[in-house]
Amino acid sequence: MVMSTVQTRRQEVEQLRREATIKREKLSKSMKEMLDFIREHEQEDCLLVGFSSQKSNPFREKNSCAIL
Amino acid sequence: MDGAVSETEHIERLAREAESLKIRLDDERQKLNDVTLSVVADRLEPISCINVKPRRVLKGHQAKVLCSDWSPDKRHIVSSSQDGKMIIWDAFTTNKEHAVTMPTTWVIACAYAPSGQLVACGTTYRRKRRRWARTRRTRPAAPPNSDQQVLTGSGDSTCALWDVESGQLLQNFHGHSDSVMSIDLAPSETGNTFVSGSCDKLVFIWDMRSGQCVQSFEGHESDVNSVRFHPSGDAVATGSDDATCRLFDLRADKEVASYTKESIIFGANAVDLSISGRLLFAGYNDYTVNVWDTLKCQRVALLYGHENRVSCLRVSPDGTALSTGSWDTTLRVWA
User: Which processes are annotated in GO (biological process) (chain A) (predicted)?
Assistant: First the structure.
């Protein structure tokens, strides 16, 4: 019981030590990059901006009649 | 007796060190917290109108749908159910192309391999199908475009990387203290990391090669049911039984957004992001799918259709469609 507590505590400390060493960036920088990523990809994001024409939507309903 | 005393001292010393490390970590994060998300989001145009409509209903399972995944061909869907079956659907035609019956009822997880030629499933059935037997959520794993490995998250609180061919365990991931509910691989080809969400309320980022947890995020007040990488690979979205979805930024090492409304009181079971990362789709126990603006933190749409809990949800690989699965036994495709 005691051993397992020591073990758990030691693991926790080791984990925290590892996390203390990671490189972090300012939130303003990482948020700006997320914003840039969204702007760069939003035109391809059909769920966000829709389809340029319904024909390019692979899940559109098939027309029930066709022009002959 | 002496031994016991020193053990106690040892524990106390470790506890003190843990405490001081936690304070140091909080300080570090606070120092970098130089902007609020709402200020950043003000630079974006509001989302005008989400025109996502129900397009297909996939009927065939006899019990709750528990998990689903899109094929890389953007057309087929694999789903697994409490009826013990895994079904491969043609989502264009709604035809069932294959049905696989497992020696169990709860097929709680399923996933396509990167090639689209194999599917993996996880069940509650132990031992016999050892390769995928202990899984809670499975997902074929790195290296990308390889079907050689499968990554699993388990009810025994561990994650594991397996060799598909030999069934051998390649790496074990210890750290969670309760069931792992969901895992997701980082999208980047170079990133050998994955994320896990657990009933211990925590979200961990793991290094696949070393087997070590490299980052952890706390904040959720109940089970974390679903985790998904942001398409940029620099953040993860989560859904929890605490009725919130959240966004954690890996580089700033902190929670940056919480998606919640007073009227939403039911847990979120499944989350996914649109391919730009602007939209977060979340399936809830109140049968709805909420669509959130990830940066403005506002709900922009509500998708009704399912007649029971929404248990799984996936944006198609090219971002054109959303599939949802429910305890009402159906899957639906929205586009």
Answer: signal transduction
Q: Tell me if A10 is assigned to some domain.
A: no
Residue A29 lies in a domain: yes
Contacts of B213 in chain A (CB under 8 A): 15, 18
Count up the domains in chain A and report the number.
1
Q: Which DSSP state fits B47?
A: P
Q: In A, which residues are within 8 Å of B234 by CB distance?
A: 30, 33-34, 37
Interface residue of A18, A22, A30 to substitute, partner B, most B CBs within 10 Å? A30
pLDDT in tens, A1-37: 455 788 888 888 999 999 998 899 999 999 999 999 9
> What whole-number distance in Å separates Cα of residue B160 and Cα of residue B170?
7
The per-residue DSSP string of B76-98 comes to EEEEEETTSEEEEEETTT--EEE
CB half-sphere exposure, A48, CA atoms < 13 A: 23
Task: Tell me if A67 is assigned to some domain.
Answer: no
Could you read off the pLDDT of B83-109 as tens digits, one per residue?
A: 999 999 999 999 999 999 988 888 999
Please report the ipTM that was assigned to this predicted complex: 0.89
Question: Please, what are the domains in chain B?
Answer: 47-334 (2.130.10.10)
What is the tens place of the pLDDT at every residue in B114-128?
889 889 988 875 433
CA B251 to chain centre: 19
